[in-house]
Write a structure and sequence with these properties.
Layout lengths: L12 H25 L12 H4 L1 H14 L7 E5 L7 E6 L10 E7 L19 E3 L2 E3 L3 H20 L6 E7 L9 H8 L6 E6 L11 E6 L1 E10 L5 E2 H4 L6 H12 L18 H14 L2 H4 L14 H7 L5 E8 L10 E2 L2 E10 L5 H13 L7 E10 L2 E2 L5 H15 L4 E4 L5 H9 L4 E4 L15 E3 H22 L1
Helix pairs in contact: 1-4, 1-12, 1-14, 4-14, 7-11, 8-10, 12-14
Bound molecules: zinc ion (ZN).
Length: about 475
């Protein structure tokens, strides 16, 4: 500790930090965050003409402008540009005096967004922010526009209380929702500016409830691509051809059944499975017992639809340490209202596999292609075109100082201690960092709790949770600096 820094363990310190964070959110964050929600800055995968459209530039300008206006001594804000790639916003904050030996903390988030999607409730829309009680609705607030505001607000709060923090680098990218294709080039161009982060704080993950801090222990990777099936060179009358010409749809069904059991949802490729570490199974049992029916309660099941399994621990493992297939796109079939009696000549589907941590995505993709393309039903033309893949991530063992700091941060931000669980989604950057900085400690956390619906309609940011996470980050920054001083 420096002579002037307050004792992070002093009674009431966490409460005071939380009060400062609440005020900073009200005064400094709500307005620019709401303005940010109006910008349709889709990730490049969903808007190949993102550069001409200018929405990414607008979002970057808003965020970089807000960052520059923070009253943080020594703060530098830079927008990194590489032709043809989405930009990255990098903020650097020097260590508080006396905490220089604490190394570097890397704080990460992203500003690009998923597309609108349909199904927003009446009065809500992706690009029209609506504040309803404690929830701020709109695309890209919880995933993940709040992150830069949370990161710099946490740093500001620490400093306002005379607290200590290490050198901080806040990195906000704009291609995360596309699998972070632009990030490696930026990291290469940055050289050793990142330094060797001893602590990585990622603010793009989920929460199993809104009453405490949730720390992510693992993320899934992915393999996605397009499966093409062709049986005719042109469509023909289905009444005349049916029974002789194989149905493209049936061929497709048979191929999909090869790789995923339609009755259980189980992925049939051994290359996409891993041995689940016993400690993670144990974690799922403990968390599953505590959460019970809450694990699946956030999903908007229609009618009498049931979950694939009722066991909460199995549900947690199924969404984290096991692979799964979803068919997320289909070409070649007319909408039902336009359907004619025509045997479809060709169909294509987009396959999205999530794969568990430690599963090699290249080996998984090769096995998938081989299985789909081998011996096609009725000799149909079948091709699998790989689009993207990424490694999952498994957190390194957590240092005891960090476990304590997370509990203290969760208590300050929420009034309850922290919990750990795995996440079903992917953040490709974590795998890149884990490989590059094997000694770093990770705090992967976020605000995406039950029903917050990132990627779907009615996405919302739960504001008390956002402020709670911000407070917890402030507490962790202080605890990290206190170790080295
Ligand atoms: Zn995200």
């Amino acid at each position: 500790m420096t002579g002037t820094a307050p004792d992070p363990d002093a009674p009431g310190h966490g409460t005071r930090l939380r009060a400062t964070v609440d005020e900073l959110w009200a005064v400094d964050v709500m307005e620019p965050l709401t303005a940010f929600l109006r910008i349709p800055d889709l990730s490049p995968a969903f808007d190949p003409a993102w550069s001409e459209h200018g929405h990414v530039a607008e979002a970057v300008e808003l965020i970089a402008g807000w960052c520059r206006a923070r009253p943080i001594l020594g703060l530098t804000v830079q927008v990194l540009e590489i032709p043809g790639r989405t930009p990255v916003v990098v903020c650097e904050v020097p260590a508080t005096p006396g905490a220089e030996a604490a190394g570097t903390v890397l704080l990460y988030g992203h500003l690009d967004k998923q597309p609108e999607m349909t199904g927003w409730r009446d009065g809500l829309h992706a690009w029209t922010p609506v504040l309803d009680g404690d929830r701020l609705y709109g695309r890209g607030g919880a995933d993940d526009g709040y992150s830069v505001f949370a990161a710099l607000t946490a740093i500001t709060a620490v400093r306002e209380h005379g607290g200590a923090h290490a050198r901080c680098v806040v990195l906000i990218e704009a291609s995360e929702e596309s699998g972070s294709p632009d990030l490696p080039a930026h990291l290469a161009a940055m050289g050793d500016r990142l330094g060797t982060p001893g602590l990585v704080v990622c603010l793009d993950s989920g929460a199993a409830s809104y009453d405490r801090l949730w720390v992510t222990t693992s993320l899934r990777g992915f393999v996605s691509g397009r499966l093409h099936v062709e049986v005719l060179t042109e469509g023909v009358h289905s009444g005349i051809a049916g029974g002789v010409v194989p149905s493209a749809f049936s061929v497709l069904r048979e191929l999909l059944d090869r790789v995923s059991d339609p009755r259980t949802g189980e992925v049939a490729l051994p290359e996409m499975h891993v041995d689940i570490p016993p400690a993670r199974t144990e974690e799922a049992r403990t968390t599953g017992a505590e959460l019970g029916a809450e694990v699946a309660a956030g999903f908007p099941f229609a009618g009498s639809t049931r979950p694939l399994t009722d066991d909460p621990a199995e549900q947690l493992l199924a969404t984290t340490w096991r692979p799964v297939l979803e068919v997320i796109g289909l070409d070649g079939l007319p909408a039902t209202a336009d359907a004619g009696n025509v045997a479809r000549p060709a169909l294509a589907v987009t396959l999205s596999f999530r794969i568990p941590p430690r599963c090699d995505p290249a080996i998984a993709a090769a096995a998938l292609r081989a299985r789909l393309e081998a011996d096609p039903p009725w000799g149909a033309s079948v091709a699998f075109e790989l689009e993207s893949l990424a490694w999952g991530w498994d957190a390194p063992p957590e240092a005891s100082w960090l476990t304590d700091a997370l509990d203290a941060g969760s208590l300050a931000g929420f009034g309850l201690d922290a919990r750990h669980f795995g996440e079903g989604g992917s953040i490709p950057f974590m795998a890149m960092l884990g490989e590059q900085f094997p000694d770093a400690q990770f705090v992967v956390t976020g605000v995406l709790g039950p029903a917050s619906n990132a990627h779907g309609p009615n996405e919302f940011l739960d504001l008390p949770t956002a402020r709670g996470v911000t407070t917890a980050v402030a507490v962790v920054l202080e605890a990290h600096a206190a170790r080295a001083t």
